[in-house]
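Support case: zinc ion complex. Customer-provided input:
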Amino acid sequence: MADITYKNKINRIRTFALALVFIGFVIMYVGLIFKDIEWLMLIFMVLGTLSIVFSTVVYFWIGLLSTRAVQIICPNCEKPTKMLGRVDACMHCKEPLTLDKSLEGKEFDESYNSKRKRR
Ligand SMILES: [Zn+2]
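Agent response - structure generated as follows:
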């Protein structure tokens, strides 16, 4: 992927799920082009359906993750955001956040910087 800026984990998974729905519809649409070749159309339809079913599973997974996510107020933009794990980025301003005081300004900053440098 070209976009390597640090993103909030929940947002990232949500984007992935949305992309799956989109891909599913594209696959099904391609299937319609081959509607004269029945078996080929069927394969595309099944793949498209699987993709959409999988995205539903991912959405369900996000729901589960959200209940475990810690809700905090971002120190940068002062909006409520949810974070997963010890380090995550703000959903609104992509400010790097950490729950672990010992990591503050250390390890996470380094990975954040190297991710930016590769751009
Ligand atoms: Zn923020």
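Helices lie at 9-33, 38-68, 107-117.

Case will auto-close in a few days if no follow-up is received.
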